[in-house]
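ugh finaly. both done.
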Amino acid sequence: MTGSPSRVFAALMPAGGDTFRDENQTNLFRALQPPACEAQTSGREVQVTGSCELSALPDRATLCISVSSNKDSVNDVTNSVSRRLEYILQALRQHEVKGENTTVTKVLRRGDNSYDMEAEVSVVFTDFTAMQSVSNVLVEKLDRTVTVSPPSFSLSPDSLNKLRRQACLAAVESARRKAREVCGMLGQALGRPLLVKEEEAREWTGQPEEGGAGAGQRGALASLQDSVRKATAFASSHVYVSFEIRPKDRARKKH
C-alpha cells in the first residue's frame, strides 16, 4: 500500500468550567469542575480501548497488451502494428471500456537493416468479467506478435480511504460497547465521550498462505484467484476512548 496511514486525534470542546491538564506529557487527564447547581460527578470516567480489522477485495484490474513487429521499412512496420492496435481498441469499445481508462504508447527503433516497433495498451477495468472476456478474445484472435499479460489487481484510492475510515469507526463502536457493558455491570450509565484517540492505524495487502486454499492447484484460473487474494487490502485501527460515567437515576431524568 502507498501512503502513510492516517492517525486521528479528536477531543470534544469542554463545557463551561471544564479544564484539561497534561501530566507526565504521556497521559491526558480531564478534570471536571461542574457548576455548583449540578450534581458532583468530577473525575467519574471510564477509559477503554477498541480494535478492528477489516478487508476489501480489489476493485480494479489493469490489463497490459503489447504488440511488436519488425519490418524492412517504416511504413510496413507502422501499418503492421496499427492494424493490430485497431483490433484491440475495437474489442475494448465492444466491451464498453471508456477511452479515459485506456493508455496507448508506441516506440520505434531503427536496426541495421530493419525497423522495430513496439506498442502497449494499458487498460484499467472495474468489471472483471469484461476484462477476462477481452483477454480471451485477443488471445484467441491475434497471433504471437500480440502478448496479453496477466492482469494486475488493486484497490482504488477512494475504496482504500473508505476502508480506513470504516476500520476506525468500527474500533470506536467496539470501545463504546465495551464501556457501556462496564457501566452496566457497575450499575451506572454511560455518559458523553470525553476523548477519542486513534493510537494505531495499519494497512497491508494479503500474502499467499502456505498450504492454504488453492495450494497445489494448477492453471490460469488458480493463478487469477491467487492474484486477487494477494491484492486484497486490509486495514486495522486501535483507538483509546474515555467516557463520562453518570448515575442511572440522573440518566433517567434527562430522558
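ok and the 2nd:
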Amino acid sequence: MSHDAPRGVVAPNFTPFNDDLTIATDLYIGHALELLDQGCVALAPFGTTGEATSVGVDERIATLAALIAAGADPARLIPGTGLTSIADSARLTRACLGMGCAGAMALPPFYYKNVPEDGLYDYYARLIEAVDYPGFRLYLYHIPQISGVGLPVALVERLFTAFEEVVGIKDSSGDWANTEALLAIDGLVVFPSAESALAKALPLGAPGCITATANLNAPAIAELIAAHDADPAKAAALQPPVTAFRKTAQAHPLIEAQKRVKALMTGEPRWANVRPPLRAFDPAAGAALARELGLVA
C-alpha cells in the first residue's frame, strides 16, 4: 500500500542551547518557523542534527509544545522519538501524536550491537503495540554509521508488510545502493538524507529528502525539488550548486560547524553552543566555512 508523504525538503532542525546548555526556546521557535517559511514542507525535530540523544524526553515534549503554541502546524512535524527503551519511545511518541504531529521517526534500539534481525523486528512490533494510537505513522531511521545498529532492507520490507503503521524510512546510510533497494519496495516512502542524491532518487519515487543542510540551504533545495516536477532542465541546472553546498558542509562536523555558521550569520553567539560530548566548532574555521558557502562576506 502506498502512503502520502510530504513532498519536498524536510529539515531535521537544530536544537539551540543557552550558555547554561538549557534549550534556547526562543531561538528554537524562530529558526523552525523560518525554515517552514523558507520552503521546508516539514520538520523532523530531534533527529541527529537536532542532537536528539542529548535531549531528554520531557525537554522534547515541552519544546514541541512551545513550537506548536507559537504557530507551527503540527501536521508538518515528524519528530524523532526512537530511544533504547520501548517504554520511553512509546511515551514520547504518544505525546507527539497527541499534539497532532504527522508521525514519528524512530531509530532502532542502539545500545546493544550485533543483535539479530528478529530482535529489531520485535522492538518495533512492541513499540507499535505500546503506542496504540489511531492513524500512527512511523518512519524508520537508518543511520548505522552513527547508531551502530542498521536496518537491513529485508527487515524494512518485513516491517512495512506486517504493520500498516510503518509507512517509510529515512536512509542516512550514504549508500546509494541501499537507498535504491529501499526505493524498490513498492509503496514505501523513502527519504534520502542528502540532497546530492535527489537527481537519482526523485525519478525512482522519493518524495524529497530529510537533510541536515536544509538548516542553512532550504530555499535552494526546495527550489530544486519543485523544479524536478515542473521543469526538469531547470532541475538539472540547480543540482550541481546544491550538491556542492552539501559536499562543502559535510567536509566538517555537520552539527557543530553548521551551528557555528548560523551564529555568524545571525550574530547570535548562542547558536554555536552544543551539548557534550560534542564541542563547539572553532570560530575561525567556522568563519572560513561560512565564506566558502557564500553565507557571509
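summary for the 2nd one i guess: The mean pLDDT is 97.
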